[in-house]
Design a protein that fits this description.
The protein is an alpha+beta fold. It has 24 helices and 29 strands. One of its GO terms (molecular function) is K48-linked deubiquitinase activity.
Length: 861
């Protein structure tokens, strides 16, 4: 055993002294209760620091806590020791040395290296023929930094030896989160090989599904025998349904069904009613194709072409990645790349753009000491900690250093190679932000726009005090809906975070070229000749902007003037302009055969954007408003009891239903409230809640969760603006149990609107007598306050001029969001820079006309 203070810069740490085995045991005795052997459910982090991107390959190595199994770099281990008092850490270090040369000057023949026992990625910049790796492990006892070399079976207590072996042999904590490993655990259905499919002509459209026996539009299952689309049952995960798919099986005996919405190029969720469990269907592609779902043509790979990609598609990859030019690498603060984890480029591109915005830099990196010091005991599961870690990794320059000059390399390598880490791996960040999300938690390619909204949702839910950097994206949209029959109108406002522009294909300025190219291409395919050079449609940006402002038909419009469904049209304008405007070009769609299609177009996106003419004007003279009458709410009978019995835990909100509603254009926070207050009964029931509450002034305010301490901005509440007025939903739950309304209100006020504690309060106050005067007085005061108070504060927006300048854009290569590759271009210090995974270079020809998402900043007026 030795004590090496030099490891931490402590003077005099180079000395060492030997101790007998008994001395080592005596030294460890006080710490034995804190040393644990990892259990099967424990996550052991031995490759990456919880607060930084230090690893065993870093200069200071990595310290793994022998109690929590969290890992810390040299700069952060002391913080964990002070906060938790945990004293025993395993220090892991990987050394890289030049190989010993043979007599002829070449490296000695390769042999199995028994000195490597850490599961780490090797340094791609080093030639494996010239350098070798050696891993080192030892126990370090704080605060004196005593070191015990490992292995040390003779001197260490058995428990410590077992714990050390278990830590060193543990698998990556991220492997459990890889859904691809789950599929291996599912059995193959015995009905898959010989499944009978009826030739009844059924074709399933790519959207707009509804249960054939009720009106539910979620948790729908496609029967693989006859093509029936029916709802599932009420599952433990709160996904709603009336069990019609199961009833259909009992009536027909058709055994297999696939869940709509889960179908991807890699498979789908298949259930066997006969076997009563989820199963694998090896012939799923064939069974889906029977109903017009051709998913095989959707398969693609990250940063590569599909086998059946047309050759002209290659030019898109070359143009967007600027492959034909010699790009100069960029290093230093703000020029750090993100390593690709396998189809993670969508995340990398979005995060590079996000952390180029000063508000996000200040909120996270600017508050780094406070966020790290007050992080929870497991910082790997804290959003703000992981955002701060990622932001610091991208902006500090610590992981983006230029290569050492050639004259220094030989001198450095004589003793030990000190690798320069270029680029960081966002594995821990991705694992956390994608947790419980069925798509982002997979290794499949995703839509960058959907991830952007997902990230905004997480920022909103985890804001630091009153500071919310996503405020810079938030704006109000005024929607004018007109009943085509009565000509009456309704004006509403909703919150949004990005502007979606349709592709106005009919406005292409090179139609003659497109027609000639299409004829030539078809002729070349028919005669098996080389395809002609690709011709893209050139779309004026003004045409896309015009298409955005034109009226749209409203599906299933319910006219309050007619008290019935009618035809309606909707137009949208900006009620406020955000500080940062995100524009999405809607390039992706689905064909009737479910094969995703991409509009391969060139849009002349402006560097300077003026949208002041899209400012909302409100009710105009001569317009007559629709009556303020709500449509009837239809709730399935078997769902009413579930709604009245309990409110869901806030952490269990069905995010898929939230995103389904958000994709309809409703504000994100309103969607979360709708799903929460309808008990996770599905998007359709939540939609009805939205229709009823959408005109309330706090409709788009963040969710106030009774009893969980979550609060909206000052003065805002979900149901009326009084901080101490219990939500009617909870009052109704208590009164439905047989208690008086006055008693319910009194109990909720006494317990800060916590349902469970309110029930305890009622049972613990049997002497409670109805004090009608008290309640009447309180309610009168509440009504008086509501009448007298000023107009409620709406969603926080940073309104201003509608003049913007372009500073970043994200581009996509490939035929659909389920395949291909993303890169990001950002304008920094007056020049464009391309961020292509871990590679960061000065851009020579930024392809601004081929982007997918554009980021504009407001020009100060």
């Amino acid at each position: 055993m030795q004590r090496r203070g030099a490891l931490f810069g402590v003077p005099g740490g180079s000395g060492s002294r030997k101790m007998a085995a008994g001395d080592i045991g005596e030294l460890l005795v006080p710490h034995m209760p804190t040393i644990r052997v990892p259990r099967s459910g424990d996550r052991v982090y031995k490759n990456e620091c919880a607060f930084s991107y230090d690893s065993p390959s870093s200069e200071g190595g990595l310290y793994v806590c022998m109690n929590t199994f969290l890992a810390f770099g040299r700069e952060h281990v002391e913080r964990h020791f002070r906060k938790t008092g945990q004293s025993v850490y395993m220090h892991l270090k990987r050394h890289v040395r030049e190989k010993v040369r043979g007599a002829s000057g070449g490296a000695l023949p390769k042999r199995r290296n028994s000195k490597i026992f850490l599961d780490l990625d090797t340094d791609d910049d080093l030639n494996s023929d010239d350098y070798e790796y050696e891993d080192e492990a030892k126990l370090v006892i704080f605060p004196d930094h005593y070191e015990i070399a490992l292995p040390n079976i003779e001197e260490l207590p058995a428990l410590v030896t077992i714990a050390c072996d278990a830590v060193l042999s543990s698998k990556s904590p991220y492997r459990k989160q890889d859904p691809d490993t789950w599929e291996n655990e599912l059995p193959v259905s015995k009905y898959a090989n010989n499944l009978a499919q009826l030739d009844n002509g059924v074709r399933i459209p790519p959207s707009g599904w509804k249960c054939a026996r009720c009106d539910l539009r979620e948790n729908l299952w496609l029967n693989l025998t006859d093509g029936s689309v029916l709802c599932g049952k009420w599952f433990f995960d709160s996904s709603g349904g009336n069990g019609h798919a199961l009833e259909h099986y009992r009536d027909t005996g058709y055994p297999l069904a696939v869940k709509l919405g889960t179908i991807t190029p890699d498979g789908a969720d298949v259930y066997s009613f006969q076997e009563e469990e989820p199963v694998l269907d090896p012939h799923l592609a064939k069974h889906l194709a029977h109903f017009g779902i051709d998913m095989l043509h959707m398969h693609g790979t990250e940063n590569g072409l599909r086998d059946n990609d047309m050759k002209p598609r290659v030019s898109e990859w070359e143009v967007i990645q600027e492959s034909g030019t010699k790009l100069k690498p960029m290093y230093g603060p703000g020029y750090t790349g993100l390593k690709n984890l396998g189809n993670s480029c969508y995340l990398s591109a979005v995060m590079q753009a996000i952390f180029s915005i000063p508000e996000f830099q200040r909120a996270y990196v600017g508050n780094l000491p406070r966020i790290f010091d007050y992080s929870p005991l497991d910082p790997t599961q804290d959003f703000n900690t992981q955002m701060t870690k990622l932001g610091h990794g991208l902006l500090s320059g610590q992981y983006s250093k230029p290569p050492v000059k050639s004259e220094l390399i030989e001198q450095v390598m004589k003793e030990e190679h000190k690798p320069q880490q270029n680029g960081i791996s966002p594995r821990m960040f991705k694992a956390f932000v994608s947790k419980s999300h069925p798509e982002f938690s997979s290794n499949r390619q995703q839509d960058a726009q959907e991830f952007f909204l997902h990230l905004v949702n997480l920022v909103e839910r985890n804001r630091i005090g009153s500071e919310n950097p996503s405020d810079v994206f938030r704006f109000l949209v005024e929607e004018r809906i007109q009943c085509c029959q009565t000509r009456k109108v309704r004006y509403t406002e909703r919150v949004d975070y990005l502007m979606q522009l349709p592709v106005a294909m009919e406005a292409a300025t090179n139609k003659d070229e497109l027609i000639a190219y299409e004829l030539t291409r078809r002729e070349a395919e028919a005669n098996r000749r080389p395809l002609p050079e690709l011709v893209r449609a050139k779309i004026p940006f003004s045409a896309c902007l015009q298409a955005f402002s034109e009226p749209d038909n409203v599906d299933d419009f319910w006219s309050s003037a007619l008290q019935a469904k009618s035809a309606g049209v909707k137009t949208s304008r900006f009620a406020s302009f955000p500080e940062y405007l995100v524009v999405q070009i809607k390039k992706f769609t689905f064909g009737l055969d479910w094969v995703p299609k991409k509009f391969d177009v060139s849009v002349d996106m402006p560097d300077l954007l003026d949208i002041n003419h899209l400012r909302a004007r409100g009710l105009q003279p001569g317009e007559e408003e629709l009556p303020d009458i709500s449509p009837p709410i239809v709730i399935p009978d078997d769902s009413k009891d579930r709604l009245m019995n309990q409110l869901i835990d806030p952490s269990d909100i069905d995010e898929s239903s939230v995103m389904q509603l958000a994709e309809m254009g409703f504000p994100l926070e309103a969607c979360r409230k709708a799903v929460y207050f309808t008990g996770n009964m599905g998007a359709e029931v939540a939609f009805n809640w939205i229709i009823v509450h959408m005109e309330e002034p706090d409709f788009a305010e963040p969710l106030t969760m009774p009893g969980y301490g979550g609060a909206a901005s000052a003065g805002a509440s979900v149901f009326g603006g009084l901080d101490n007025q219990p939500p009617e939903e909870i009052v109704a739950i208590i009164t439905s149990m047989g208690f008086q309304r006055n008693q319910a209100i009194q109990a909720l006020r006494a317990t800060n609107h916590n349902l469970e504690r309110a029930l305890d309060w009622i049972f613990s106050h049997p002497e409670f007598e109805e004090d009608s005067d008290f309640v009447i007085e309180m309610e009168n005061n509440a009504n008086a306050n509501i009448i007298s108070e000023a107009k409620p504060e709406g969603p926080r927006v940073r309104d201003g001029s509608g003049m913007y300048e372009l500073f970043a854009f994200i581009s996509h290569m490939g035929t659909s969001t389920m395949s291909g590759h993303y890169v990001c271009h950002i304008k920094k210090e007056g020049r464009w820079v391309i961020y292509n995974d871990h590679k960061v270079c000065a851009s020579e020809r930024p392809p601004k006309d081929l982007g997918y998402m554009y980021f504009y900043r407001r020009i100060p007026s």
